[in-house]
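Much of what follows relies on a compact textual record of a protein's fold. Think of the row as the fold of the chain written in a discrete alphabet. An example makes this concrete, so a full record is given next.


***
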Amino acid sequence: MILISATEHEESFYLTRGDKRCIIALANSNEPALVAIRERPAGKLVCLEQLILKIITVEGFDVTLVKVIPAREYDKALKAIFGSGERCTQDNVLMALSAYIQDLRDDAQGLLADI
């Protein structure tokens, strides 16, 4: 919430979050203080899976795969998506990333950016 609150005086921004629980909690909160905070980042939050998908699009699957494999242990979603390491296929990874993003998009109620 501190990062989201820090955007208060920013006219233009995107905020990258790896914490999907924070995004979902903010989207579903009815607490008056959070409702105002929720409006500010609407359509401007970017999740880790969106970034990985964008990097694959720009840099290519093989380049991205060798960078993500060593770090996949630190994120549950990436561990699930890239769990088979070098045996991952581009089609399976893209499908899994898209599914994770869509699930979060459904739960985030307009907070996720379209990148």
Q: What stands out?
A: The longest strand covers residues 15-17.
